[in-house]
Amino acid sequence: MENSLPKRSSFLERLTFLLLFSVLLVYILVVAKHILYPIVLALLFSYFIFPLVNFLETKAKFPRVLAILSSFVLFGIILFGVGHLFITQIKHFSGDMPHLKEQVKLNIAHLQSFINSKYVISPEDQNSWLRQKVIGILETSNINLSKIVLSATGTIEALIFIPIFSFFMLNYRERGKNFILMLVKIRHGELTESLLQQISKVTIKYVSGVAIVMGILAFSHAIAFSIIGLQYAVVIAVITASISIIPYFGTLASAVIPLFFAGVTQGNPYVMLALVIYFWIIVFIDHNILTPIIVGGNVALNPLITIIGIIVAANIWQIPGMIVIVPILAVIKIICDNVEKLKPWGYLLGTEKRSSTLKRIRQIIDERKKRTIV
Predict the structure, then answer these.
(1) Tens digit of pLDDT for each residue in 10-30?
(2) How far apart are the C-alpha atoms of 212 and 206, rounded to whole Å?
(3) Torsions phi, psi of 24, nearest 5?
(4) Which of 45, 80, 105, 294 counts the most CB atoms within 10 A of its CB?
């Protein structure tokens, strides 16, 4: 009995320390978010552009600074090309705005007429109800335009530092690695070296894989939206594909944009039905074929832990938090898997690596071929 008291006391002390540490960590992440999330995003961007920098530096024999700047310029040209196409579509959209407004009014009138015929609610009562709801939402949400503008300005200012941070991270990357190795000294040097290699490999594959998946989705969306007959297909496709960067929720949530746009501007039920069918197919392809093959099974995280992490990160850092949380969890899992005392946590964070749907189909075909041969 006497021996159990110190153990219980020790457990409570560790639990209290863990809770205090968690509260302090969340507080720091919230207060310093405009400083911290640009650094994390810059680190991810550095991993994304590193293969090109490394190629120019090792194969083309560029000086390091020139290799980094050339990579940035190439990335900027691609971004400028996509932006130019996007802006051109936006100009067409702005020019057709009067026509779209009339179409929206007509669609709302049709909807009100349908509601009146089915539920005997007059358009005047519908408008009154809608005005009350809108006023209630505005009052309860306590929207302050000046605060929104200041917040948006602070976010833009923070994002400007991303290329600056990335440049110095890439230029002085050996110093960062050597700094970590110097901290752990000789005793844990080999383990730390292995951890850094694993983290770099997984992060590069994850970031580049997500970028490739987004590009494929943008191309696929643009073609599908054009065939379906959705107006401004390219603009809607780029916006929709950009949202897919958010794990799990992104591809499914992005369907709201084209569906809403088609509903208020075109009002064609067949267009909306075609969009629903298309997104049902593309979500299946993305989750079972594209992401497993391109991103790979390198980030084998527990879906439940990942979803909880996304929700928590969204409350702390909003959209940037939802973007960076998966590689952060992957890094934590790698560390836990390689440190003996933390292996239970690594087991909790992880899941069994499953082969993609395409690989499973190939395995089934191969097995049937073997049976027919026998």
Answers:
(1) 777 888 888 898 899 989 998
(2) 10
(3) -65, -40
(4) 45
